[in-house]
């Protein structure tokens, strides 16, 4: 079992949608006050938009020709005049099939996402993780990421 990372192809649409729902269902379970089930039109539109954008790509993880995960990666250029003009790569979504987790596939996707962004002029990577997702927090902290900022909320 040697994982392979490749760019998404048109035939990956259904597996991207299925895996995105796996990830999103996990978010719904972890933070039900924030997330609800994804409406199908939004998911379809989002996949199509990200597949055709020059600023994003789906990186697909395969094991024995079976897709077992993906990372949605993109590029952002800060536009605020008070922020240093540093091109950043962003991992918008990263998911690995539950039965393939803890086998280095997420790390491989993360590393390929960084390389993808570096090739497009990015100087650093960023991503968001909910505090309730301890498994993801541990994964990223153990993969060389660090916390730069926290988003604070309160009910009113």
What fraction of the residues are assigned to beta strands by DSSP? Answer: 15-25%
Q: Kindly report the name of the CATH homologous superfamily.
A: Gcn5-related N-acetyltransferase (GNAT)
Strands in their spatial order, largest beta sheet? 1-2-3-4-5
Overall structural class, as computed from helix and strand content, comes to alpha+beta
Distance between the termini: 51 Å
What average pLDDT do the residues reach?
A: 92
The figure for the number of domains is 1
Low-confidence stretches: none
> What's the CATH first level?
Alpha Beta
Shape: globular
Rounded to an integer in angstroms, the radius of gyration calculated over CA atoms is 16 Å
The SSE order reads EHHEEEHEH
Biggest β-sheet: count, sense, barrel?
Answer: 5 strands, mixed
Primary descriptors:
156 residues, alpha+beta, Aminopeptidase, 5-stranded mixed beta sheet, 5 strands
Describe the structure.
This protein has helices at residues 13-30, 40-52, 105-118, 134-141, and strands at residues 4-7, 56-63, 66-76, 88-96, 124-127. It is α+β, with helices and mostly antiparallel strands. The chain has a five-stranded mixed β-sheet, sandwiched between helices. A hairpin with a 2-residue loop joins strand 2 (56-63) and strand 3 (66-76). The N and C termini lie far apart (51 Å).
């Amino acid at each position: 079992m040697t994982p392979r990372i490749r760019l998404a192809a048109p035939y990956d649409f259904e597996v991207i949608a299925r895996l995105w729902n796996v990830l999103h269902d996990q978010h719904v379970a972890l933070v039900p006050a924030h997330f609800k089930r994804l409406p199908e039109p939004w998911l379809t539109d989002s996949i199509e938009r990200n597949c055709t954008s020059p600023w994003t790509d789906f990186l697909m993880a395969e094991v024995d020709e079976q897709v077992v995960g993906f990372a949605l990666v993109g590029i952002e250029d800060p536009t605020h005049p008070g922020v240093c003009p540093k091109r950043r790569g962003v991992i918008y979504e990263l998911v690995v099939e539950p039965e393939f987790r803890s086998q280095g596939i997420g790390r491989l996707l993360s590393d390929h996402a960084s390389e993808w962004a570096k090739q497009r002029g990015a100087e650093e990577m960023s991503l968001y993780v909910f505090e309730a997702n301890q498994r993801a927090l541990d994964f990223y902290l153990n993969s060389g990421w660090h916390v730069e900022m926290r988003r604070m909320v309160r009910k009113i």
